[in-house]
Design brief:
Blueprint (H helix, E strand, L loop, with lengths): L1 H6 L1 H21 L9 H71 L9 E5 L2 E7 L3 H12 L6 E7 L4
Parallel strand pairs: 2-3
Antiparallel strand pairs: 1-2
Length: 164
């Protein structure tokens, strides 16, 4: 009970107020003629009403806490999903950077392609090549080289080769 008081002081205040109200109503009924009840019987009725109000408030508090707990669990699931999504986005970005670096390094190894600047962009494993190519054959080799890199899902070759 001590933890409950600390966890929700507003609820404790509500319970005390409900009890005081029930007691006041019970005691004010003592001044009325109602079937010959004694003061003790009237006080017992007031105490019973206070206990009933306290029980109802306790049940309301339990329901509110259960609802809050359920909401927090749902929020936790959403936070977990958001964290997983963010982790996947970071992993995809890192993978794309690794693919871009690997494709660029592989292109530099080709004697015809190493002398030119080829822009390599990667998004979700899809590689896009742009820039000049010294020949149509070198342009096609660039596509083959990029396709040979681990993690590449597709290659869009936008290299421009001289007409020949």
């Amino acid at each position: 009970m001590h933890q409950f008081k600390q966890a929700n002081p507003g609820l404790r205040t509500t319970l005390v107020a409900a009890g005081a109200l029930a007691l006041t109503l019970g005691l004010s009924a003592c001044n009325k003629q109602d079937g010959g009840q004694t003061v003790g019987q009237k006080l017992d009725n007031a105490v019973a009403k206070t206990e009933q109000a306290a029980g109802e408030a306790k049940n309301d508090a339990k329901n509110a806490m259960a609802s809050a707990e359920s909401s927090m669990k749902g929020s936790g699931s959403e936070a977990k999903a958001d964290a997983k999504e963010a982790a996947n986005a970071v992993a995809n970005t890192v993978d794309d950077m690794a693919i871009t670096t690997s494709v660029s390094a592989a292109l530099v190894k080709d004697p015809d392609l190493s002398a030119i600047k080829i822009n390599v962009d990667t998004k979700n494993g899809a590689v896009s090549l742009s820039g000049p190519a010294p020949s149509a054959a070198a342009k096609e080799r660039a596509t083959s080289i990029a396709q040979g890199v681990k993690g590449v899902t597709s290659v869009t070759n936008n290299l421009t080769a001289p007409a020949g």
